[in-house]
Amino acid sequence: MSATETTPVKTSSVLAVLRQPLLIAIVLIGVLLAFGEALSPGFASGEQILRLLVVASLLGLVAAGQNLVILAGREGIDLSVGGIVSLSAIVAGNVMSGQDASIPLAILACVATGALFGFLNGVGVTVMRIPPLVMTLGMLGVLQGLLVVIRQGIPSGKAAPALADFVAKPFLFGLPGTIWLWVAVGLFMAFLLRRTVFGQRVYAIGSNEHAAFMAGVPVKRMRVAVFTFSGIFAAIAGLCLLGYSGSSFSNVGEQYMVPSIIAVVFGGTPLAGGKGGYTGTMAGAVLLTILQSILTTVNIDESGRQMIYGATLLVLMLFYGRGRRMRG
């Protein structure tokens, strides 16, 4: 076989690999772990990997809702997730006030907070026809204002000991509860997207909203639902973050806005929506968490990390973020 015949085959093989985001993420996770171990011996130890997975689970929970919003298409992005994480953590902390007996009520208040603001985002996008980017950015401003008002009159609250233990200490088979929660969310997302009418409709409106509407899909209700889900998942992340840190503060969720988008795009869901899945997003969350840990190891501050995240998102967008060729 001549070189001219083999070259197209090799090229197509390379392109096929590049269109497998989950495979790429797994390879990069291994590379980053090896690099981190070279920088700081013990970086890839079992104990450290467990800590990284706990941190990754928090990002992964936020990214679950972001994943649904982006899958639904229409250039949907939820920029308010950071504000919802922060507000939910503060609400839960104040309701809980360090008391185990108050955990059920705190969970209810936390989830209700996330669902409310997610629902309002969905209503703004569907009923008021505000573009998702503008609507969620405006909601972020509202949430930041609420955080300032709340912090002036109410203390930030404290996590109950049982919540702190669930999040960070061994819960089952030596793994912290937050990792098991993330696994449960992963299974729920897989079932929701692949085995339910809801999931089929999400992919349908993400692929072609007009065709989905003509086929009888309740597009507006679906879009409200995915934004509501995004708010709920962000609130759950806020609750876990409260348990992880022990207390809440006004800007605790800001760190999740851009990384949650990167995790989704890196996992194989294009910003155009309609294709992708949550498994790749989970791998993307782990990858970004390892990258963040490496950047911290080499003493890059928060502003530097945000610049790197932004540059990473731009590169992903240029590479495949807006297309429909990637498979989740």
Major sheet attributes: 2 strands, antiparallel
- The beta-strand count equals 2
- Count of discrete structural domains: 1
The level-1 CATH class: Mainly Alpha
Low-confidence regions = 324-328
Radius of gyration: 20 Å
**In DSSP terms, counting alpha (H) and pi (I) runs of 4 or more, how many helices?**
14
CATH level-four homologous superfamily name: ABC transporter involved in vitamin B12 uptake, BtuC
Query: Class by helix and strand content?
Result: mainly alpha
Assembly category: single chain
The percent range for helix content is over 70%
What strand line-up does the widest sheet have? 1-2
CATH fold type: ABC transporter involved in vitamin B12 uptake, BtuC
For the residues shown, what is the average pLDDT?
86
State the separation between the terminal residues, measured CA to CA.
34 Å
